[in-house]
Write the structure tokens for this entry.
Amino acid sequence: MIRVADLVKKYGEFTAVDGVSFSVSAGEIFAFLGPNGAGKTTTIKMLTTLLDPSSGTVEIDGLDPRRKGNEVRQRFGIVFQDPSLDGDMTAAENMEMHGVLYHVPRHTRRERTERLMRQFELWDRRNDLVKVFSGGMKRRLEIARSLLHTPKILFLDEPTLGLDPQTRNQLWTHVKELNRAEGVTVFLTTHYMDEADRVAHRIAIIDHGRIAAQGTPEELKQRTGTASLEEAFLALTGTAIRSEGADSADQMRQFSKMWGGGKK
Amino acid sequence: MSVIYILWLRELRRYIRSRLQIVISLGQPMLYLLVLGFGMGPVFQKAGQGSYLQFVAPGVIAMTILFSAIFSGIGLLWDRQFGFLKETLVAPVPRVQIMIGRTLGGATVAMCQGLLVTAVCVIAGFRPANIMALPAAFLFMALIACLFAALGTAIGSVLENMQGFQVVMNFLVMPIFFLSGALYPLAGLPLALSIATRLDPLTYGVDGLRSSLIGVSHIGFSIDAIVLVAGTMLFLLIGRHLFSRIQI
């Protein structure tokens, strides 16, 4: 479903993603893990047509995002790291907007909106403005919205960031259920190793823009001789704190935007 | 088509929901209209130019549309901040449709504000010279709205933070307003100022509006219309280009 080969993204001198290759089969839940600044979000952006790779190939359901941007976009749903809802519209209006943007016919749109909003326990609040929603409700609405156009792939970029354990638990239960019942392929990133361990069929660990290891959670634990995925993760990526990396990557991005101009 | 419609509708929904803001945004035009209108009235009268209120009302209407249209374009900045921009940019639709929808929505909102201020002007004592020319006035209001909504979208596409917004306000929007002849007649200006006014697109909007509302024109009805249409096209093209380059 997703095939990535020798993917590279450079910002000037800085290489954010450095020759990454992996593939995700249809119906799989694939976790993409790594410390801050490792290249996770940059990779997701390249997979979801938001960023052009410097080199390498990406295939989403057999299509090249660079050439068939809109066809690729129709095939996936995405929940971004930070919220992307319109707080000044109601939950139902946010769904409606999404349905129109993704060419879902009016009748199907209404039907699916109701079904998804009931499923994610938001139907009673459909006419409330999103800005009064709690963090967990916003997340649920975003996931419900991303499924409105029946995507084949669901990208979740740290979807549980800042949510309480109850909400996180509920969210992953929903995701697993979706994957099981509808066969949606899921590509997720998270910093919570226990979540990845519980949910993912397969895991890739990225560090310094390169894939450090990939396999099932069990394989990764065996390979590193550790008891938990968290320990395996630390064994593979070291214990040094990486927020600096994220900052300099960010700075480079800002810098190239200011001086390099446009698409790089 | 439905994509353009839904984005247009969004701008309108947001406008209608912000009732308090609608009232607040009438404050500044009322200040210009009532304080300047009545304050400058005697001087204007003595100079043999007639009623200043009559003269300044079209300028105040144009100003309202200018501000409202530019701000709606800059609303992109908020959408960037609160993340909604990503939702539209990752959707399987051509970006130009998103840009057109937003711009038309912004222009419509600016039109509504303009009509509201027109009503306020009439209440304050402003009287259009010729009822038959009202459709022409409506046309000019729409042109001003489209032109500056397109400019607003273009600016909103490159702004990344609030500091930029202040710069735009002080170095672009205010000069556009003050150079447009909204507050003073264009006849007999010093050469440099006269040239500057001619480079300001709002000048043609104010002149067109004035010629249709009170029958006084400095430049000429058709040139006004042509410049406004051409300017709108130009800003739409620039906006389309800049909008297509947005990265998130």
Notes: Chain A has one domain: 2-259. Residues 260-264 of chain A have pLDDT under 50 and may be disordered. The domain at 2-259 of chain A is CATH 3.40.50.300 (Rossmann fold). Chain A touches chain B at residues 48-51, 69-74, 78, 80, 82-89, 93, 96-98, 100-103, 257, 262-263 (CB under 8 Å).
